[in-house]
Amino acid sequence: MQNLKDKVAAVFAASGEIAGAVARSFSQHGAKVYVTARNLDAVKTLAQEIKANGGSAEAAKVDALDEAGIDNFLRKVVADNGKLDVVFNGIGANYDEMGGRPPTTEATFAQFMAPLEKLCGSQFLTSRIAARYMMQTRSEGTILLLTAALSRSKLSNVAGITAASAAIEGLTRVMAAEWGGDGIKVICICPGALLETRRISGWINAAAQQYGMPVEQLVAQYKSLDILKTSPTLKQVGETAAFLASETGVAFNSHIVDVDCGKLNIL
Fold first, then answer.
1. 22, exposed or middle or buried, with CB in 10 Å at 0-12, 13-18, 19+?
2. At what angle do helices 234-245 and 17-28 cross, to 10 degrees?
């Protein structure tokens, strides 16, 4: 079923595994997809894969923290198509990029603010610029943000990323309220820890070495919190994004949509 037939979609940070999965699903559901990242080679490879599978895709080098670059890119998308229907920003960050996981009493102000600026800041930029073009073209489109379940968890030594995750969720609700009158829906996707991704598998391997534990034991501890006997996959995240961007997905406007199969430790 092509829920997004003839839609125009832009995906930021598409060199990441989650954004890549979303771009593939958008294409499979009929959208023309523009994939962007700082790593042009990576998104060129993704675009080639999408086209090889019968989809329509174009790649561009865009830094999702560069306001002028985002604006120039989306202006071109609108000039070429006359509209902009869907935007997804899959920007993420590793702990080491954000200065590690220092205790809150020891973290510097810069370490605390880094994930807020990168994660929430990027979502703010891509969302508001996309909204302007959707308003100008009366596209009545969908803006999809990405957050992490840290926003509703109680973990030590992750103050900055936890605050950024919660801020993205609050930003989603504000933007949905502001732009709903223009027919724009704003939704935030919150995947569980995707064990098939390099980020999560790398974290598990590093933690296993740090604590002298078998990897299998750490995985079992995490999966013990699953409500069902299954865990989410990248494909399920992509399919959820495509559904939310469809006409049926309008029922979820302003919501934080968990894609985790249910977790006992998440509110």
1. buried
2. 50
- Contact indicator for 9, 77 with CB cutoff of 8 Å: no
CA distance 62 to 11: 10
Quick one: which of 195, 191, 198 has its CA closest to 240? Answer: 191
CATH number where 136 lies: 3.40.50.720
Residue 264 lies inside a defined structural domain of this protein: no
Instruction: Assess contact for 207 and 164: CB atoms under 8 A.
Output: no
**22 in any annotated domain:** yes
Look at residue 181 and tell me whether its pLDDT is greater than 80: yes
Q: Is the dihedral of CA 90, 39, 3, 133 positive or negative?
A: positive
- Predicted TM-score (pTM) of the model is 0.93
In a domain, 228, yes or no: no
pLDDT in tens, 208-223: 787 788 888 877 877 8
In this structure, what token pair is assigned to residue 266? Answer: 């998440």
Q: Which residues pair with 146 in a beta bridge?
A: 189
What range does the domain containing 53 cover?
8-194+233-259
How high is the pLDDT of residue 209? 80
- Kindly state the tokens that stand for 199: 């980020």
Number of domains in the chain: 1
Give the helix/strand (H/E) hosting 146.
Answer: strand 142-146
CB atoms within 10 A of CB 52: 9
Residue 205, domain member (yes or no): no
Query: Rounded distance, CA 37 to CA 12, Å?
Result: 6
Q: Which 3 state secondary structure label does DSSP give 186?
A: strand
Q: Name the 3-class secondary structure at 253.
A: coil
